[in-house]
Structures are given as structure tokens and as C-alpha cells.
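Protocol step 4 of 6: structure prediction from sequence.
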Amino acid sequence: MITRMAILNRLQTKSILLSFDMQLNGNCGLCGATLEDRDHLFFGCRFFRNVCGSVLQLCGWVDGIGVFSIGLLLSFDGQYIC
């Protein structure tokens, strides 16, 4: 469900909430670096990368260049690993 929402850009990120004229700080709640949107959360957020990198290391999954792939977070049958 979350994967589908992320692909369709339907996650309730701060960038989407701001588009509805909500008065809030749009920076990422995890790292505070930039506007929180889907792409930042999954690919640009330092905090998220560190957490997922640690989880993948604990699971014994690491790729050759040290950058995780969102595809590694899901098993082939669609069950969430982290």
C-alpha cells in the first residue's frame, strides 16, 4: 500500500500539504535540510538513508557502491522488510 502511494506520489508529505495552503514549515521533519517531498524522503534524506543503510547492513544486504536501492526494501512477494 505504501509503495503504491509512493509511486503515485500520494504520500501526505509536507509539499503536498503546502499545496493545500496549510500553514506549516515545509522542511523535512527528519533531517530539516530541504522541502519534504517523496523524492527527498526516499532518495535525498540523509537521516532516512542512514537508518535504512543500518537496517540493510544488519540484514547483510549491501550493494557495491554503498547506496541502497528502494527495491531492496521490498521482497519479491511485496512484503515489507523495513
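Step 5 (inspection) to follow. The mean pLDDT is 79.
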